[in-house]
Amino acid sequence: MIKNKLFHLATYAAAISFLVLPVISVAQGQDATGQTITAPAAAPVSAATAKKMEKAKERAGQEIDRRISTLNDLNARIQDMQKITSDFKKTLNLTIQAQISAFSALKAKIVANTDEATLKSDVQSITQSYRVYALVFQQVRISAAADRIVTLTTMMTTLGSKLQARITAAQNAGAQVGSLTTTLTNMSTKLQDANAKAQQAVALSIALVPDLGDKTILASNNAALKTARTSIHAARKDLDAARKDAHTIIKGLKSLSITATTTPTAQ
Amino acid sequence: MFGMIKWLVVILVVLGGGWFLYTSGILTKFAPAPALAPQAVENTTTPPPSPPENTNGMSAATDASDAAIDQDTGAVDAQLALLATDTTNVDTSVNDKPLTQLY
User: Fold this and answer.
1) Which of residues 93-132 of A touch B (CB under 8 A)?
2) Which of B64, B84, B86 sits opposite A162 (nearest CB)?
3) CA–CA separation, B47 vs B36, rounded Å?
4) What is the pLDDT of residues A80-128, one digit of tens each?
5) Does the model's pTM come out above 0.80?
6) Whole-angstrom Cα distance, residue A68 to residue A55?
């Protein structure tokens, strides 16, 4: 039986908290470094500036809405994951909800803003937080795919045990099962490889930290994420191949027309 | 003898203090968060409770009948379809681009 490991998703909570810090600080009247901003008295703005501010507000609102939508999708996917505990799901849910609230508050602040300098600072905080958001976004997507892969290897291992029992029954009844046994071995190898690839993908992505503008870290992160994605794709191919092996075995067993009288032994 | 009485008093104070902390609930405020990382699991002798098993539509583990195997392959196919969505989401996340801001 393939042993499944829990993922280091506790680290994701810390990683997601990076999203919270710059946005909440701005929403509370602080800049991205935590310094309190004293809002200057709103000076009358020209029509051109007012038009520019309206456009900036609209663009900022669209980006905030886009991120809130993604966070809601991520949250829903996290709740569907099967290899993390319900307590940890609640923790992640609360963290994401806090982030969504912070974004909503920032959007309201931007909409209400009448001073261009303050508006500019608020809008720039959106850009500054993007690199963190983008990294966490990819990390959670990779983790969700890996979670599904491990779930599938568990399911297909159980299926494999049943097919083994049926092959054994056929062999005991005098049937030639050499090719079926070979196919079952291939299936098992594919499942083990899929599991290993999933673990590798998570290990590669979860170790990454936001680049915060550092191009060297950004390049390193991109390379690691690319490798993690490649591992996910490779694991999926393994599972597709294992599924085909299962189909081959089932078809072979049906051609032998031998009913199972034994049950798979616990592993 | 007085030395022994002194140690007895110390022990009683410690035990009494511990009982107070326990009954007052103060200790629970500092209880560590449930361990989730594998290394925390490895360091304990009692494994943490595992999440309730999700059968994902699979039949009973001990049932190797044709019907059970058909059910299992159907359940696997459903999860493989969901994996296709997950994989697409991974690829989409790579190509995510922010909306350019005016400031």
Assistant:
1) 119-120, 123-124, 126-127, 130
2) B64
3) 11
4) 999 888 998 999 899 999 999 999 999 999 999 999 999 999 999 999 9
5) no
6) 20
